Amino acid sequence: MEEMIIKVNKLIFFDYFLYLAFLPLNLVFIFYESTPIAIMLLLLIGTISYNKPYLGLALWILTSQIAPNFYNPYFFGELPFSVLLNYFLIAGVVLNYTKNHILSSYLNANKGKLIFGFLLIYISTVSLFYNSGRMSTYVIFISMIIIFFIVIDIMKNSEIASKFILNTLVLTAVFTLLTSFYTDGISRRLRLAGSVRGVANIVGLGIIILISSLIFEDKYNFRKIGKKDIIIYLTLGFLFLGLFLTNSRGVILAVLFSITAMFFSRFRIKIKGKVAIPKLRKAIIFSVLIVLVVFSFLFTRQFDLFIERLDICEFSFPRIERWISVFREMNAGQLIFGGGPGRFRDIAVDKVGVDTYAHSTYIDFLVSLGFLGFFLLLSKISLVLKGILNKKNHLLFGLFIFLIFNFFTHGSITSYYFWIVFGVVAGNY
């Protein structure tokens, strides 16, 4: 038994080594964005996914932070690098499942759950051809549904792989902040390769995972890579500072809601027959840390920008008015079956006169796949919530709250962090 444990630990250590070795390759990609490096990244992720799907998924998440802004039409044709990255991951995982003779058994054992994906693909296909959706959005949407089920399978069937994915999410958050500080500096809003939301999303996820591990000590205990709490406190402070510097209103509020929900989900626990506040000492230290970060934030220009962006006339009304205007331009068939993937922007430009995306994954679902697709999504979310409540896991509940609030105010049906978070919670309830 001890030999088996040692062997497993060595394998996991090697996985972390490969993950860290991928960081400098991504840094080179950031600065040079050359086609040979892009091809190398695609081949590596495809090959690694074929051998170890969970490691391939972790590397895909890391690279997807940078990939969306790389585009070489002379080599890749009409497919952006980010889309090819999705399909190299999928190809590697599917070939792995086929090689190990688990693909057919997986499909047979998960028929009920896979119906959700099949129906979404069917509805999006019908709406695409009958209501003039965007083929490019459709292709990305299909890949995200497949990756969603890959995440579910990885999180569900291996506790070691689950911990690895969650730990690398935190590491990716730290790496993203360090890279964004170095490449873009602190301007009006912290960003990486032009993306503010990409930075905010991964940092928010890292914060939620660390807090769950630190305060509640859920089974995904990040502290196993270091016994001293001070490392986690410093990492949390760094991530919170980075999150505030993005000035991403929706993500900041979603993270705060998520943390509050985790505390109230089990504010009291029984210890030897008595009722006590869980981890009071850690909670106090954590609170002091947050106060210090917020205090430093108050005396920067970022705070003034945050207050400016929270102005209700600029934040809520125009976005809601655009949603209503787009709905009014849809006919009965489009409302039921959807206008097609990517249709929101087309309607907004043609009918409303505004070139914008939905700024809400759920609204984009409603416009793209109609009430049928939206009902399927709500049904799946309801089942996941029921399972999480029965399991009483703080991390899953916190991530679920983040999933709901964060992507209600931004994102689209192709937002990969929506499908990552959704897959994590759906794979563990």
Write up this protein:
- The protein has three domains: 1-107, no CATH class; 110-157 and 323-429, no CATH class; 162-310, no CATH class.
- The protein has helices at 2-32, 35-51, 53-64, 73-76, 81-99, 103-109, 111-131, 135-157, 159-183, 196-216, 229-246, 249-265, 280-298, 301-309, 312-315, 317-328, 332-337, 343-352, 361-391, 394-406, 416-426, and strands at residues 269-271, 274-276.
- It is globular.
- Strand 1 and strand 2 form a beta hairpin.
- The chain has a two-stranded antiparallel sheet.
- The chain contains 21 helices and two strands.
- Helix 2 (35-51) runs parallel beside helix 5, helix 3 runs parallel beside helix 9 and helix 9 crosses helix 10 (196-216).
- It is mostly helical.
| Strand arrangement in the largest pleated sheet | 1-2
Which runs of at least 5 residues are low in confidence (pLDDT < 50)? 1-8, 219-226, 268-278, 310-316
* End-to-end C-alpha gap: 29 Å
As a whole number of angstroms, the C-alpha radius of gyration is 22 Å
The averaged pLDDT comes out at: 76
| Total of domains | 3
| Total of helices | 21
Helicity range of the residues? over 70%
SSE pattern, N- to C-terminal: HHHHHHHHHHHHEEHHHHHHHHH
- In total, the number of strands is 2
Largest sheet: 2 strands, antiparallel
Shape: globular
Q: What structural class do you assign from the helix and strand content?
A: mainly alpha
Q: In percent, how much strand structure appears in the residues?
A: under 5%
